[in-house]
């Protein structure tokens, strides 16, 4: 469940911190070339935009794809027209790593999202140091004042935050942060239940000018159409891409 995933991610960050100190990771973050403008890349347009995810496994489904070369997969996502790429860096259940993110950064020039369970400033600096342009903050995992602190740090580092919600109350909290890029995850990260109609129920409550992201549960082009007709500007897709020919699948999605 969500608390365990977050606790595990914090233990792993603590371990890395023994090798790379907070001061050092901050220095590396500030030495990076500036972050790409993800809000521009994901701005509403005539067709739906896709954030394509590098995802080997998940706690709800187990192994999805071996992905020996994340950079090669990301290159085909970019070639196929993905507007941004999400790289899962959580190690325990999603079998990702920061190294995956670094490799992908070398291979593509579209905005990159570090997808992980972020709960301390160290992880935000790490994301930027590894080349991320965006970070994920999950409202259900964070207390508001702490989330604001992480949000503000990411913004100061030039990154964009994708704020993930799973209810109307969480959406309010995302809006209170000042979030401009807001996601609704169809999957409840505590029960792993999927609700593909949740986005549709929340879509009217997004502030005007915000970018609406529908996350999870896409099986095929009909699911993209469903999210799009409910008002999604962007859809975040993992499993359907890693278990198919990503170029073919993306081409069909981007017609919507
Ligand atoms: O593989 P899917 O069902 O297309 O889902 C992708 C993405 O939305 C999902 O991986 C995700 C959404 N929010 C998260 C938070 C943490 C880990 C993973 C996620």
UniProtKB/TrEMBL annotation:
It comes from the Bacteria. Keywords: Amino-acid biosynthesis, Aromatic amino acid biosynthesis, Decarboxylase, Lyase, Tryptophan biosynthesis. Its EC number is 4.1.1.48. Gene3D superfamilies: Aldolase class I. GO terms for molecular function: indole-3-glycerol-phosphate synthase activity; phosphoribosylanthranilate isomerase activity. One of its GO terms (biological process) is L-tryptophan biosynthetic process. Pfam families: IGPS. It is an enzyme of class 4 (lyase). Pathway: Amino-acid biosynthesis; L-tryptophan biosynthesis; L-tryptophan from chorismate: step 4/5. Residues 13-245 form the Indole-3-glycerol phosphate synthase domain. CDD domains: IGPS. InterPro entries: Aldolase_TIM, Indole-3-glycerol_P_synth, Indole-3-glycerol_P_synth_dom, Indole-3-GlycerolPSynthase_CS, RibuloseP-bd_barrel. It catalyses: 1-(2-carboxyphenylamino)-1-deoxy-D-ribulose 5-phosphate + H(+) = (1S,2R)-1-C-(indol-3-yl)glycerol 3-phosphate + CO2 + H2O. The keyword Lyase applies. The keyword Amino-acid biosynthesis applies. Belongs to the TrpC family. HAMAP family: IGPS_B. This is Indole-3-glycerol phosphate synthase. It comes from Alpinimonas psychrophila.
